[in-house]
Write a structure and sequence with these properties.
Strand content of chain A: 15-25%
Largest sheet of chain A: 9 strands, mixed
Number of helices of chain A: 11
Oligomer: homotrimer
Largest interface: A-B, 30 and 32 residues
Strand order of the largest sheet of chain A: 2-1-3-4-5-8-9-10-11
CATH topology of chain A: UDP-N-acetylmuramoyl-L-alanine:D-glutamate ligase
Number of domains of chain A: 1
CATH architecture of chain A: 3-Layer(aba) Sandwich
Shape of chain A: globular
Order of helices and strands of chain A: HEHEHEHEHEHEEHEEEHHHHE
CATH superfamily of chain A: Ribokinase
CATH class of chain A: Alpha Beta
Chain lengths: 266, 266, 266
Amino acid sequence: MDTGTLSELLRILRERRPLVHHITNYVTVNDCANITLFIGAAPVMAEAKEEVADMVSLAGALVLNIGTLRKKQVESMFIAGHKANELGVPIILDPVGAGATRYRTEVASRMLQQLNINIIKGNAGEIGTLAGTGGVVRGVDSEGMTGDPVQVCRGLADVTGAVVVMSGAADIVTDGKRTVIVENGHAMMGRISGTGCMASSLAGAFAAASRDRVATSAAALAAFGIAGERAAGKAYGPYSFRSMLMDEVAALVPEDLRRSARVRTL
Amino acid sequence: MDTGTLSELLRILRERRPLVHHITNYVTVNDCANITLFIGAAPVMAEAKEEVADMVSLAGALVLNIGTLRKKQVESMFIAGHKANELGVPIILDPVGAGATRYRTEVASRMLQQLNINIIKGNAGEIGTLAGTGGVVRGVDSEGMTGDPVQVCRGLADVTGAVVVMSGAADIVTDGKRTVIVENGHAMMGRISGTGCMASSLAGAFAAASRDRVATSAAALAAFGIAGERAAGKAYGPYSFRSMLMDEVAALVPEDLRRSARVRTL
Amino acid sequence: MDTGTLSELLRILRERRPLVHHITNYVTVNDCANITLFIGAAPVMAEAKEEVADMVSLAGALVLNIGTLRKKQVESMFIAGHKANELGVPIILDPVGAGATRYRTEVASRMLQQLNINIIKGNAGEIGTLAGTGGVVRGVDSEGMTGDPVQVCRGLADVTGAVVVMSGAADIVTDGKRTVIVENGHAMMGRISGTGCMASSLAGAFAAASRDRVATSAAALAAFGIAGERAAGKAYGPYSFRSMLMDEVAALVPEDLRRSARVRTL
């Protein structure tokens, strides 16, 4: 994949400043709001069933994150999701903790069946769980998956029609046919709360920039990873790293993606 | 408006350390809690219908922020609001996103009809929406209002009996008769999530210091703006700016308002 | 109490990396997630009644924090609590604001009656309220208790069978028979939102390291206090202090507890 393409996507995203409607958890929601702003989009969080259809109608993307799912919130996710599908607004699903409890697995699976999800972004355990090939999740942390990661991701993409994005030391992005590996990032990103959720917010922001969701997802992960690499050298500990990571996302210019993205097509 | 008056309000606020009861959104709630502490008040967040009347009875001000409103939360806002009115506890309404969805507009309008709201704090799109003169809101961002901002604010103040506070490059504070412009602040404040909510929390804290709500609102905005000006020079990016902004609010002394507040009466 | 014991508890905690299941407030939840990670445990927040029994089954500890309690959340706390008791997972109760409203006092009291709570962690007003000896709470801040603090804590421990942990200038930890005073900490910790909640999260993380809950609670408070002492010298204001406090928790090594913990047995 040409890094010039990724660079162009950041330029388009900043020009459009899309509204990214989140229905998300209350743990990392502030991080998601800020990082969405810093990449150049406009975040909004809204989950009342009375308003989610109206809100998603204004949006360039819908992020569904089940990190602290509750029954009423899940109902709103379906209302917003159906409206998004009707309008062609891309949906990003972050199945946080799928595999850890039956409820999370069941809700995420039902979303994949009843909604047209455009991007699934999870860790190895979550992706393995949803693919049905085996994944282990403890709380919200992956403890691994069964089988070859790329094959599992491709399989889930084939079955669901979604682009599958699996975070890890190297990230996998695939629509089943085209598979891209993103190698940007830093180990410090795994030491703080919220980086998985932030990556999904960024995937949402970029998804509003083009219909090529493999490219937009790769751009989101590369951008986040580059920011992480730059922040790592400047931090005293993980919490100041988190602050620097945010600032480095805000400091990114399109040219950074052209020069520093490390992506390769399998 | 004499800046010595604003200075005196900060002194009184710190002396009283009022409890500021928030029923607010889950995106910026932590920012609101911290900034309320740093200005010298005591924040509490409570929204169960079983306890809001008890909690507001202890409070010096009630902040109602509809940033992530839900039906049950709205019910609690009305219970708390009626109790506040009964006890004379001032209510600050932040109609976040009014105009973006019918539900938000309807809830905010219903509050203005059924409760005695003392201060309405919003952006141009929200204020224009509530005034009925025309406002455009996308998500939680203003995309402008129809008509002359000062006239619209005065009109809304006349109809509701509230002091209207409109944030912007220059902030407007009016009770319909007296109108004050606050010119403190920095463009960086618009680049991070939560500054609108934080301003409402500060307006709540100051509202407990005097019944002159034009003066207390101007003091809140001037204090916040001065802190923003000081933070801007020290930050690497928007997230470190956010951290410095918090510290600068905590570092304010009454004398800062006397010297650095830029307020003028129209 | 031998500080070598505390040191050993941090070593065990980091080796085990227990999952700490939180059902907690939405104000400080992100702080709790990050500090749980930084001490070396794995946080998860989950409150849907459909999943809390499953989630707590994976956990090394359950933290129940009533800071923004709602009826449905309280129901889930009881479901999770009963399951935790069945499985022998230790429960930490933080009765935030008990004494400020009847609802908080009633819910916290009901938990003490119907669940086997292993650790109660509160401020003087909250502990005095639950002990029935008299405590005054305004919002979430203690305004003091009636009687001798150590005697009140011992009494509450005797009645409930829980280890009682009372935060203050010096912290008290007692199971009714053995009483330990922890003298680490810094006044800055009282100037920011969330330190009480963070202490409870740390108490949860350490509770998964040993069944000696007096020792684990003392270790949690000493560790947090040492981090606070180190952060205080490096901060410009309270919000940058908060960031440094987080980093200093992450930087702790077991040896720090052996050398710097200031604990004494009464």
